[in-house]
Structures are given as C-alpha cells and as structure tokens.
Amino acid sequence: LPLRPTDALLVIDMQNDFMPGGPLAVAEGDAIVPGINELARQFEHVILTQDWHPEGHISFASSHPGKQPFVDTVEAAYGTQALWPVHCIQGSRGAELHSGLALPQAEMILRKGYRKDIDSYSAFFENDGATPTGLAGYLRERGLQRLFFVGLAYDFCVGFSALAAARLGFESLIVEDLTRAVGLPASGNKPGTIESAGAS
Q1: Is the CB of residue 145 less than 8 Å from the CB of residue 31?
Q2: Can you tell me the distance from the alpha carbon of 109 to that of 11, in angstroms, rounded to the nearest whole number?
Q3: What pTM value is reported for the model?
Q4: How many helices (H) and strands (E) does the chain have?
C-alpha cells in the first residue's frame, strides 16, 4: 500500500503493564514491537498513546469493594464500565512505553484515561463518547487524513480508536498483524467485527 504525505501511524498503548508479565498482560504484546519499529520507519507522521491513570481510577476493580477484575462491571454515569487490575498508574514503570520501541520520530504522545471518574479506550474520546481528547483537531490541523492503527489491545483501545476515527471522517485502517487482543469473553470482538463496523 503506497503511503501518502497525509498518512499517520498511531501506536496505541505499547506500555509495560500490557506486556507479558504485567498486571493487564496481552498475550504476545511484546512480539509486535519489532514490526511496529520497522513499519514506523516508513511513516513521516507517528503518534503514540499512553494509558495514564491516577490512583483509585474508576476502571480499577480495587476501587469497587467486592468486585473482581476481568469479570465484574460497574454502572458509571456514561454506561457500563469493565473492571481491570490496577495498571498504568501515572509516572509508574508500568505506564512507561516498552523499552524496545524505537520511535524517536514520534511527533506526539497523547495521554488518556487521566480523569479519575471516566475511562478512555479511544484515542479520540473518553468512554462517554462525547468528551474529546483533542486528537482529531490536532490531526485535522496538520492535514493528516489516513490513519493506520497498531498496538494494544485490538478489542479495546485499538478497536475503539479506529472506529472513532472512521466516525469522525478519517480513513481508518488497522494493521492486524501488529496488534493483539485482550480476548475477554465479554468483549465479543473477534477479528472482522471491527472492520464491519466501519474501519478496515
């Protein structure tokens, strides 16, 4: 696929806590690092995201007595919230980007999920679907139109970001070889689900 000057690569949440051995490990999450580095060398524009939670975040099961991560949910003001182990605490080693990433040309790191009472899977909107992160405005002001998504995890932050980008009018493509899924039984997203919803 020939690249255009208006293309951007979005590298989603390639952080230590999502790697094998981390509290919210995605199987083979570290296996895609070399491929991301190689692909990124072809892009003039690279943007990274970081999950960036305060202590006691609403998405942590430990913030809700008696609730279990991966199993239970809570009803938040914006809808049903999945519960996770404590992860990506602001300034922690777990929130740091994987040390194998070699993306010195990255123009921006967008931090998300930093509001205590709302989670953020998408790089474009908080989970209420309405509060913008500012990324769309940044991309439009830069004239970037076609977005390629890689990183973690396919069935949450990558998928939600790609769908939001498509809804906002960007051309949105997931590089499936360079993403991995959490694979929660409740998430229901298998490869193919996301494309049929508007991203390819």
Answers
A1: no
A2: 9
A3: 0.91
A4: 4, 7
Distance CA 58, CA 119 (A): 7
Is the preceding peptide bond at 199 cis, omega within 30 degrees of 0? Answer: no
> Which residues are identified as catalytic?
13, 112, 157
Provide the token pair at 3: 């690249």
Structure confidence by residue, pLDDT tens digits, 76-91: 999 999 999 999 999 9
Nearest Cα to Cα of residue 30 among 183, 174, 179, 190? 179
The residue type found at 194 is I
Residues 6+ away with beta carbon under 8 Å from 172: 147, 149, 162, 163, 165, 166, 198, 199, 200
* Residues ≥6 apart with Cβ < 8 Å to 171: 145, 146, 147
DSSP 84-137: B-S--BTTSGGGSBPTT---TT--EEEEE--STT----SSSB-TTS-SB-SHHH
